[in-house]
Amino acid sequence: MIRYRGVHDAQRTHLLITEDDEKGEHHYTLTFGELYTASQKCAEELARRGVPPGGRVSLMLPTSRQFSFATRRILLAGAVPVPIYPPFRADRIEEYAERQSAILNNAGVCCC
Length: 112
Fold this sequence. Notes:
Helix content is about 45%, strand content about 25%. The chain is built from four helices and five strands; from the N terminus they run αββαβαβαβ. The strands form two sheets. Strands 4-3-5 form a three-stranded parallel β-sheet. Strand 1 and strand 2 form a beta hairpin. Helix 1 (about 1-10) crosses helix 2. The longest helix is centred in the middle third of the chain and has 17 residues, at about 30-50. The chain is flat and about 45 Å long. The model has no long low-confidence stretch (mean pLDDT about 85).
């Protein structure tokens, strides 16, 4: 659907995003055309790195606009996003690393 809209309805809004940070609230829009163009670049880079169609790609980002964009780009590139989340506590980094390693190994990730 995103590929179709990116080609045939590029100016149509795909996402309306609101994010809060220390400077206040910010509003963003993303059109199907913008997403599709960025996805084509992502597909080229994944191919350059040797990710095959259906390959699993790990994605470590907090829940955010960038996470949403990256997930869709990986999907449109023909790969499968495997989200892992940044560590929350430095005092438990070893436990975190073991858990994330197990997720990545279980998913058969080929690119991080």
